[in-house]
Amino acid sequence: MRRLSREYGLEVRWLAFPLHPETPEEGRSLEALFAGRGLDIPSLLERLAEVAAQEGLPWGPRSMTYNSRRAQELAKWAERQGRGDDYHEAMFRAYFADGLNIALPSVLGKVLANLGLDAQAGLAALATGEYAPAVDQDWARSRALGISAVPTFRAGDHGVVGAQPYATLEKLARRAGASPR
Fold this sequence. Notes:
By secondary structure, this protein is mainly α. The protein is 52% helix and 7% strand. The chain has 9 helices and 4 strands, in the order αβααβαααααββα. The strands form 2 sheets. It has a two-stranded antiparallel ribbon. Strands 3-4 form a two-stranded antiparallel ribbon. Helix 4 packs antiparallel against helix 5 and helix 4 crosses helix 7.
């Protein structure tokens, strides 16, 4: 996204999405999450790892999924600090490369501290629920837009779903009227 933003002068806006909000704090195995859906989880993870490698994104083995609600609320706080993109990248690494449980305040605090943000202030804002309404609004907007999976990329009235190579995202931007700088 940074490359696309830089090359096309696009503004990236992150929209929180309720991905498996029923997931408990301790997380759930991918097998339990996708039980009965007939998915080949190892093949799916292999494809995602290939796309990540092609795009130079961090990726690691994982077998669990975690509730992202707190991370989403904290993202709104980080955006208010002017560090939203940095936070989202760090959270991507924490979840997809390092396999960390992003539902835990202790993990979230470490991510903030590693970014040089005031972890105590961020966690205090999280504890008050100050950014919960903003996430609720994003969830409602994502439903109104018909978003049903992450990642979903939108530009104008067009969108693509799933982990995509740069060329696909570039095509999306061009379709929406963007041109390179």
